[in-house]
């Protein structure tokens, strides 16, 4: 089925590149887009997958997401008695309860085309965008954003007010990846295709981006774009190349991240209370 769907999406992409517009979309084209969104929501297809230990983007899936925007029209829609205008409706959530997942009302927004696993918790206000994949047992806390095509593993804890960025273009770029068992402290930012390794614990207000160096004290090397598995990470400021300036005395500093071996006490401190499951 997915092979057929991939071929249909790729054919539609070529037509779109050739000038097909939303006004020209008919029943067949709309059926392809709806089948694509259904497959995303069912977890049958993903924007990125791990192959031979490396995360790789599924370019055709990211193209499908772009097609969904480009070949859809903005329409009035209803949510909670309020009319809003968007190219996509919200995702139906009547399949979540049977899998043990719950989302609180008045602000929890799951957009069409997002996958949410079983035994997950989404606290309002939280936003999960199209193409995102939220694994089993994961907690998306209040004021969190899970961006387009972001891939969140099983049993991840995303602390309140955390931003998981989205990556749609270029289509060959891998989106943000948060592997299983990760704990992100409140106020973290993970952007631009960064990969957070399995089992890592990230301190509050840490920015993880390919533009910020990771000083891995375990392997004694500087990394960019990834935090290795089983690390404890936190922000520190290091000297930048900018020297003294007329506007301020002394040199300038830039943010960096320090990564250490994870400790048993750190893991214990970040474990989710069983009360959350009751």
A few lines on this structure:
The protein is 18% helix and 29% strand. The chain is an alpha/beta fold.
Key terms for this structure?
278 residues, Tetrahydrodipicolinate-N-succinyltransferase, Chain A, domain 1, 10-stranded mixed beta sheet, 4 helices, 26 strands, 18% helix
Description:
This protein is α/β, with parallel strands linked by helices. The chain has 2 domains: 74 residues, Orthogonal Bundle (Tetrahydrodipicolinate-N-succinyltransferase, Chain A, domain 1); 186 residues, UDP N-Acetylglucosamine Acyltransferase, domain 1. It contains 4 helices and 26 strands. The strands form 5 sheets. The protein has a 10-stranded mixed sheet with strand order 5-8-11-14-17-20-25-26-22-23, with helices on one face. α1 packs across α2 and α1 crosses α3. The protein is globular. The mean pLDDT is 92.
Give me the strand/helix succession.
HHEEHEEEEEEEEEEEEEEEEEEEEEEEEH
> What's the N-to-C terminus distance?
38 Å
The CATH homologous superfamily name of the largest domain equals Hexapeptide repeat proteins
Derived from helix and strand composition plus strand pairing, the structural class reads: alpha/beta
Strand order of the largest sheet: 5-8-11-14-17-20-25-26-22-23
Mass-distribution shape: globular
Mean pLDDT: 92
Rg, rounded, reads 20 Å
Residue stretches low in confidence (pLDDT < 50, at least 5 long) are: none
Which architecture name of the largest domain does CATH use?
3 Solenoid
Q: What is the C-level CATH assignment of the largest domain?
A: Mainly Beta
In the CATH scheme, what's the topology name of the largest domain?
Answer: UDP N-Acetylglucosamine Acyltransferase, domain 1
- Helix percent band: 10-25%
Beta-strand residue fraction = 25-35%
Q: Specify the number of helices.
A: 4
Give the tally of β-strands.
Answer: 26
Major sheet summary line:
10 strands, mixed
Number of domains: 2
């Amino acid at each position: 089925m997915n092979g057929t769907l991939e071929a249909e999406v790729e054919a539609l992409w070529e037509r779109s590149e050739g000038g097909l517009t939303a006004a020209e979309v008919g029943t067949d084209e709309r059926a392809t887009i709806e089948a694509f969104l259904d497959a995303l929501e069912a977890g049958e297809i993903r924007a990125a997958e791990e192959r031979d230990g490396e995360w790789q983007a599924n370019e055709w899936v990211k193209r499908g997401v772009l097609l969904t925007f480009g070949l859809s029209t903005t329409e009035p829609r209803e949510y909670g008695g309020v009319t809003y205008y968007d190219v996509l409706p919200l995702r139906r959530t009547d399949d979540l309860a049977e899998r043990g997942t719950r989302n609180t009302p008045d602000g929890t927004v799951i957009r069409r085309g997002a996958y949410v696993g079983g035994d997950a918790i989404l606290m309002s206000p939280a936003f999960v965008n199209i193409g995102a994949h939220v694994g089993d047992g994961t907690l998306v806390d209040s004021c969190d954003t899970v961006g387009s095509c972001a891939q969140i593993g099983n049993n991840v804890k995303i602390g309140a007010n955390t931003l998981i960025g989205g990556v749609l273009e270029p289509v060959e770029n891998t989106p943000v990846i948060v592997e299983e068992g990760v704990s992100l402290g409140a106020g973290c930012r993970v952007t631009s295709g960064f990969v957070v390794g399995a089992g890592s614990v990230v301190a509050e207000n840490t920015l993880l981006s390919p533009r910020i160096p990771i000083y891995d004290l375990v392997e004694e090397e500087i990394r960019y774009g990834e935090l290795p598995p089983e690390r404890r990470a936190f922000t520190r400021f290091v000297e930048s190349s900018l020297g003294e300036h007329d506007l301020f005395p002394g040199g300038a500093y830039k943010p960096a991240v320090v990564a250490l071996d994870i400790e048993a006490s750190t893991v214990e401190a970040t474990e989710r209370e069983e009360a959350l499951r009751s």
